[in-house]
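Hi all, long-time lurker, first post. I run a small reading group and we've been trying to get comfortable going from sequence to structure in the token notation. Rather than ask abstract questions, I figured I'd post a concrete chain and ask someone more experienced to write out its structure so we can walk through it together at our next meeting. Sequence below, copied exactly:
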Amino acid sequence: MIKTAVILAAGMGTRLGERTKNQPKGFLMLDEKPIVEQSICKLLEMGIEKIVIGTGYLAEAYERLATRYPQITCVRNDEYEKTGSMYTLYNLKDHISDDFLLLESDLIYEKKALDILINNKRPDVILASELTGSNDAVFIETDEYRFLRNMAKKENELNHIYAELVGITKIFYPTFQAMCNFAEASFDDDLKLDYEHALVGISNQVNLYVHKLNNLAWCEIDNEHHLLRAERYIYPMIKAKEKNVPPVKRNILLNPGPATTTDTVKYAQVVPDICPREEEFGNVMQFISDELTKFVADPEHYTTVLFGGSGTAAVEAILSSVIGEEAVLIVNNGAYGKRMCQIAEAYGLNYIEYRSRPDKPLDLAAIEAMIQNSARKISHLAVVHNETTTGLLNDIESIGCLCKKYQIQMIVDAMSSFGAIPIDMEAMNISYLAASSNKNLQGMAGVAFVVAKKDHLEMTKHLRPRNFYLHLYSQYKYFLETKQMRFTPPVQTLYALKQAIIETRLEGIEKRYERYTKSWEVLINGITRLGLTHLVKKEHHSRIITAIMEPNIPSYDFQEMHDYFYRHGYTIYPGKLDGQNTFRVANIGDITYKDMELFVNLLEQYLISIGYCTERKEIHGDSKT
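-- Answer (accepted) --
Happy to help. Here is the structure in token form:
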């Protein structure tokens, strides 16, 4: 069992500027405790009994820290300005006599990182993660058995990239001796040698296993960008994941929202009671507003307005608040396009409806002809991005080009695309975008929001309000001045949304869409194998929600099938198309392709139980014969 840890802490941290003028970077504060001390506490909790710190720059800070922790021994590298991390490690050779964990002083990480290494039976293990996009990564190349072959900061210096170095490594004592021998032979030419290069240097004689741990919350803090990322996303995520709370029963929601959430999002709602008018809570809402904007636009030119309510509240807020006397053209190719028409009707808006089939791509030429031939001046066009009725993905980029050509402001219902499908509001010419907390963001239901172009929103302030609670400009102006909603917000739901945003930021929208797509592919391949068909062709599909044609046999009943899945921990959703019998399966939320594989297996068992597979064989013949 590993009982020794070594922390490399000699560096000057010059990229952090004034922050490291009077302290080493290991003494950057998060939650009123230096990050290196947090690391030390985690090591002690994991049973480490001896900690050797290789110091250099402002070594006195570590020596003062050691007076409070008898387990710590500090060893100075007086040549820290002229040497690299391997020289600091080599300088500790008289204080190391056993296997040890090697860490860098500027890391924050989950405690499970230590647990993985300590309990790994291999003698040498380099901890790695999936790529984080930190812009200062050390990339790792391995052989087919996941043993180290090379490391580099430049991707083009490697044959392939397997993972990113975390900065925590378990080192067998003979391996350390080999590193020291390699270093001795290298110091005449390169005193700046890093320990990573020493590991690469001995990798042809020692099997250094690379353990890639996905979904690990961690970061190294080398510059201001890293520090901001640590403060806003990584450190809150570490705290959320390290709460000592029991797991919540996991249900797989394959309905189109709310989606399956992580336990960290669920538990984010458990907070001390707070009045939402306090500055502390205003800061939470400001964080949410800023981060939601940054997912799709530049906050300098766009802003996010929050409402308590379902996603429809955001759509209604836009339509009732930004349309003047001129007409809005509403694209209706599904239940949610139809809903926008119903909202327009309820408010007596001057609107024109463009109808299109729910399973076919939009005819852009026909939309343009409608704009050109309209007797009414069209000021706005409203369209659903991903039509949740079917999974049809509307081409909002091309529609945005049309709107730009005719000086029309575009309104997009991005309820089931925001947070999964990349959107650039400026490039796509979107003036207003509506979404909610409970779909691809993987938060709880109850928060609707509008991302708006600021100058377009400012142009609406003179329009006569048609709505009080959902008046967009009033909500925007009040939040701008006070960091508050005008009316009582859903406090716990907003805390959960903050956590969900952090998790979305860490996973990345493109990576999340890749995960969703993998689940969708399992679904499509599965239903095709079972003889079911989906409504929208693959090339026009959002890969987020799928309308599936119901089995056409007397023994089929949707409610019975729903209840069957519900008993097994899955929820599916009925169809919403007039004249076509469908049910819907979404593949969003905190699920993986493994969950979808289990769903397909359950679906097969259900279809067998109602005789669908038998009847299909009788009609089409057994494909095996």
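A couple of things your group might point at:
The radius of gyration is 29 Å.
The first helix runs from residue 35 to 45.
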